[in-house]
Design a protein that fits this description.
The protein is built from 14 helices and no strands.
Length: 418
């Protein structure tokens, strides 16, 4: 319960940070910041090469075997693998920042924020990997602090102290500094609680192939998560990026419960599957889904009832995205209702099935988004995102039934697992 509360606190802190930044920066500068952050997040995610998902699985298995030196060995191997990749990606992004700004998004003012975020790609990549590693050890409080508490807290303190300007580039630099502090905390905590010495040697060349299946599946997830914001920036304008970004963050308040529960359930799914306890796996999956549905009811109803009011918290002009918010919220509701289907496939050795589903729906979602953006603006992009989200969730729901023998939906009781 304590880990869940921390996840909730982290989600609320991130949301408050976004509202404060939007009001402090205005719709245009916030749009530049949101677009640059999206591109940086994509770059950092690619740099992790799927190891952020894989590391949970390997560390959880090592801990289950009471072999913590092996767990640390896997983490060090992953860090040494990701570091050179992320540095290379950061250099490349820095070199093409100007071209991306002018030729892809048609706004030269994006260059400064993009260059600032490019420097932080390795920091964000390593920070997120360490956060996932702590999940493997079931240190959920530390993971939550690294992922979603330290950074927004520092940004909010900077705004309150009046030392953060409303300029997108300045905020981007402050964001990277906050991520660096969070990374330092994660490294220090692992050192004090588990140590870096006495570990088993896991060579990076052994780690890299292990991340490949998760990387391919992760590409689909990346597209489904971030492509809509990129599409708005490419085919509409920066102001609409800000409005759409605010709508996505509000809608995600419905699904933060899924993220929080997944963070707690991931190592448990791996451990249950590793011991052959399919009945326990089914029970945990159904209980998790029931809890998520129950907790999502109130925020869903509030968002659907007063969409313009909630968007108005971000400042002037944001209310225009109310229709997109309604559509995205409905999509997130289906996401929550299906339960942890993607995580179940990933943690039980069915990465290929997950990869096929995510890549297929990602292609369909992007195609729909590009077409609908031209005719219906951000509302069209929201429809493409929601349809894609529903498609991959229902598809994975059926795939979990076929591969593991049970439904994650609490109302569907019958399956091979009992």
């Amino acid at each position: 319960m304590g880990a869940f509360v921390l996840r909730l606190a982290g989600a609320l802190l991130v949301f408050v940070m976004q509202v404060v930044l939007a009001r402090n920066m205005g719709v245009y500068e916030f749009g530049l910041f949101a677009l640059a952050l999206t591109i940086c997040t994509l770059a950092a995610s690619v740099s992790r090469f799927g190891l952020d998902v894989g590391i949970i699985k390997m560390i959880a298995k090592s801990v289950a075997l009471e072999n913590k030196p092996l767990a640390t060995g896997w983490l060090v191997g992953a860090l040494l693998t990701i570091l050179p990749i992320s540095i290379g990606v950061a250099i490349l992004l820095s070199l093409v920042a100007g071209w991306i700004s002018t030729e892809v998004f048609h706004d030269t003012n994006l260059t400064g924020a993009l260059e600032a975020f490019a420097i932080g790609v390795p920091v964000i990549a390593l920070m997120m990997l360490l956060a996932e590693a702590h999940k493997g050890l079931k240190s959920m409080a530390v993971s939550a602090a690294v992922q979603s508490i330290i950074v927004p807290s520092l940004i909010l303190l900077s705004v309150t102290a009046g030392i953060l300007s409303g300029n997108a580039s300045g905020v981007a630099h402050a964001y990277i500094v906050a991520c660096s502090i969070s990374l330092a905390f994660a490294v220090y905590w692992w050192h004090t609680s588990h140590g870096w010495g006495g570990r088993e040697n896991v060579h990076p060349l052994k780690v890299l192939p292990f991340g490949w299946p998760f990387f391919l599946a992760g590409l689909g997830t990346l597209v489904l998560t971030w492509a809509d914001t990129i599409i708005v920036g490419m085919f509409i304008d920066v102001e609409n990026v800000a409005i759409y970004y605010a709508a996505t963050k509000l809608a995600s308040l419905t699904s933060f419960i899924l993220i929080a529960v997944n963070a707690i359930s991931a190592p448990k799914f791996t451990a249950l599957f590793a011991t052959g306890d399919v009945a326990g796996l089914q029970r945990l999956a159904k209980q998790s889904t029931a809890l998520m549905i129950l907790l999502a009811v109130v925020p869903t109803l509030l968002l659907l009832s007063f969409p313009g009011f909630w968007l108005g918290m971000f400042g002037e002009h944001f209310e225009a995205g109310w229709h997109a918010l309604v559509v995205l919220t409905l999509g997130q509701t289906i996401n929550v209702a299906c339960g942890s289907v993607g995580l179940l496939l990933a943690m039980t050795g069915h990465e290929k099935s997950m990869r096929k589903i995510l890549l297929t729906t990602a292609i369909l979602t992007v195609t729909m988004g590009v077409i609908l953006a031209r005719y219906f603006g951000i509302t069209g992009v929201a429809y493409s995102t929601a349809i894609g989200m529903c498609l991959w969730n229902v598809w994975m729901l059926v795939e979990v039934r076929g591969k593991l023998g049970f439904w994650t939906l609490p109302a569907l009781r019958y399956g091979r697992a009992g």
